[in-house]
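Weekly sync, protein design subgroup
Attendees: M.S., D.O., the rotation student, P.L. (late)

Item 1: inverse folding check
M.S. brought a backbone from last month's batch and wanted to see whether the design step gives back something sensible before we order anything. D.O. pointed out we never logged the input encoding, so this time it goes straight into the notes. Structure tokens as presented (139 positions):
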């Protein structure tokens, strides 16, 4: 009976852990896809939090500027066109993310949403990925 119990236990463990790889509920943030897009845009990179450079560092190594409020974001926007990386504010960098793409114009940081409202003449382009988004800001 011991072998049957162990076999049933192992089958249950394999089934349960396989969900991490195949169930969309457990999708992780798509840093690899975002890095490929950043490379194709060939623009400087700004981030909204200090954890994003850590997540991007295995894929690309550009110079990052951190903008944590509307003033810092305006300073970046005045210098040059750039890519602003935003993570879903509800997700930790190590946690599982939602499987649907993150929309920074609706669910983004309050300072970013307010900045977009305050600067309607500045063109932006949004590329959405699972758990994060790239916002290209051109002046």
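Designed sequence read out in the meeting:
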């Amino acid at each position: 009976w011991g072998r049957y119990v162990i076999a049933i236990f192992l089958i249950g463990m394999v089934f349960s852990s396989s969900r991490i790889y195949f169930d969309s509920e457990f999708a992780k943030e798509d840093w690899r896809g975002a890095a490929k897009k950043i490379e194709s845009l060939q623009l400087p990179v700004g981030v909204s939090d200090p954890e994003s450079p850590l997540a991007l560092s295995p894929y690309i190594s550009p110079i990052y500027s951190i903008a944590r409020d509307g003033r810092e974001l305006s300073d970046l926007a005045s210098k040059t066109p750039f890519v602003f990386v935003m993570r879903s504010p509800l997700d930790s960098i190590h946690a599982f993310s939602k499987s649907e793409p993150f929309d920074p114009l609706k669910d983004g940081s309050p300072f970013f949403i307010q900045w977009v409202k305050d600067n309607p003449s500045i063109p932006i382009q949004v590329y959405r990925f699972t758990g994060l988004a790239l916002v290209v800001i051109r002046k």
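Discussion: The two ends are 72 Å apart (CA to CA). The helical segments are 2-22, 31-41, 52-56, 70-79, 104-107, 110-118.
Action: P.L. to compare against the previous round before Friday.
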